[in-house]
Design a protein that fits this description.
The protein is mainly α and about 190 residues long. It has one domain. The protein has helices spanning about 5-20, 30-40, 60-80, 90-105, 110-130, 155-175, 180-185. The structure holds zinc ion. Zinc ion binds near residues 41 and 123.
Length: about 190
């Protein structure tokens, strides 16, 4: 699945989880869900985050983003040299370790924790729809696929799936934020 599909799935997962949990996440946590939805592919040095962050025009922002960029590149290098791509980060163990770390570090910000965990888990779910599947029980077991055959990365079916996820996201956001309904001319709930 490409970065755009993962971003859509990340936002969809956050909106869906917020509906189920009865939460109303503030706007700033949505980009966090997108970043978390890209994070499992950090084990691929050519992925959006594995390649580090691009240089920012603002010098202050650039200075702040450099350490994070180096940390991402280092993590990417270590993961690809030790466990390889689509292993630990795409498994239940990976989801658990990520959730535990986020909860320990950011437990005081439940909406942010919800966004990061939903985003991360959405990546593994999206890749499970893929032809290659995901090694859910890594280091044991075969790759797990949600669909027989799976969806080919970059194909028309992936675009269709991303559009369905986008439609779900819009619907969920309208339910979550009644004010949005008024803004687009619908009756407020
Ligand atoms: Zn992946």
């Amino acid at each position: 699945m490409n970065a755009t599909t993962h971003a859509v799935f990340g936002v969809a997962a956050l909106a869906g989880a917020a509906l189920v949990a009865g939460a109303e996440p503030p706007a700033y946590v949505y980009p966090a869900a997108v970043a978390a939805a890209w994070l499992p592919d950090v084990d691929n040095p050519r992925s959006t985050l594995g390649n580090g962050l691009s240089r920012m025009k603002n010098p202050t922002l650039n200075l702040l983003s450099r350490p994070l960029s180096w940390a991402l590149r280092t993590t990417s290098f270590v993961l690809v040299r030790t466990v390889g791509h689509r292993t630990l980060t795409h498994s239940l163990v990976g989801v658990f370790l990520f959730s535990l770390t986020v909860w320990l570090l950011l437990g005081g910000f439940p909406n942010l924790v919800l966004a990061l965990v939903a985003g991360y888990a959405s990546h593994v779910f999206a890749d499970a729809l893929n032809t290659r599947g995901v090694p859910l029980l890594w280091p044991a077991g075969k790759p797990f696929r949600l669909l027989p055959g799976g969806i080919r990365s970059g194909g028309a079916v992936e675009v269709a799936v991303a559009l369905v996820a986008l439609a779900f996201t819009l619907y969920a956001l309208l339910l979550l934020y009644p004010g949005l309904r008024g803004a687009i001319g619908l009756q407020p709930i």
